[in-house]
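Would you mind writing out a protein's amino acid sequence and the numbers that encode its backbone to help me picture the idea?
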Amino acid sequence: MERVVQVRNLTLGEGLPKICIPLTDSDLHNLLRSAQTLQTGPCDLVEWRADFYGDFRNKSLCLEVLYALREILGDIPLLFTIRTANEGGQADIPTEEYEAINLAVIESGLADLVDVELSRGADVMTRLCSSAHLTDTTKIVASKHDFTKTPPETELVSDLCRMQDLGADIVKYAVMPNSERDVLTLLSATVTMKEQHRDTPVITMSMGRLGVISRVCGSFTGSSVTFGTAGQASAPGQLPADRLKSFLDYL
C-alpha cells in the first residue's frame, strides 16, 4: 500500500518531514492572533490543541473556533487535538464526551485531521476512523504518548501497527527517553515501520532535551511530521519552527 496521505495541498509521507505548529492559547482573541502570525513563518500544518482552550467542551463553541481558524489558515491543513491528562495534556474528560466532541469535529469538515488517542480504546478508534472515512475529507491521526519512559522497540512497533489495523490514516508515538539508548530505540522502531509496515505515514518523537535529535532526522528514519514552536511549546523538546526548518533543509 502507498505510504502517503494527501491533505489539501500537502503530501504526508514523502519528501522532507512537514513542520506542524501547535496553537495552545486559552482564549479566542489570542488564539486567532497566534494563527495569523503563522502566515509569515515556516509552517506546513497547524495543530489546534483544544485542551488548552477554556470552552472546548462546548461543541457549538468549539466548531465556531474551528471555523474562525479555517478562515485565517486558508489552505494550511488543520489538525484538531484534545490531549487528555493521562497522555500529557490538559483535558480530564470521560471517554464518551471525548468521542462525542471528536465526532462533531469530524462531521463538521472543519478540521483536515483529527487526533485520536489509542488509550481511548479500540472501539472508539474504530468508530471515529469509520466516521472520518465516510466524509472523505478528514484524516485520523492515531496517537500514543508515554511521558515517563521509552517502551521496548517491539512494543512501539506493535502499538503503531495496531493503530494501522484499527483504520488510522497516520500513526503517531511520542515517548520520553531516560538515556541516549532510549532515543536510539525510538529511532530504530521508526525505521522498522518504514521498512516493514508501510501502510501509513508514521510520526514519532523522543521528547525532552535528550530526544531533540529525533525531531530533525525524519528524512533518515521515516518520521513524516515534526512539531515546532512559534510561541508556547505543547511538549518538551520542541524547537522554534524557523530553526527546525534550517536543520531539516541542511540535513
In short: The two ends are 28 Å apart (CA to CA).
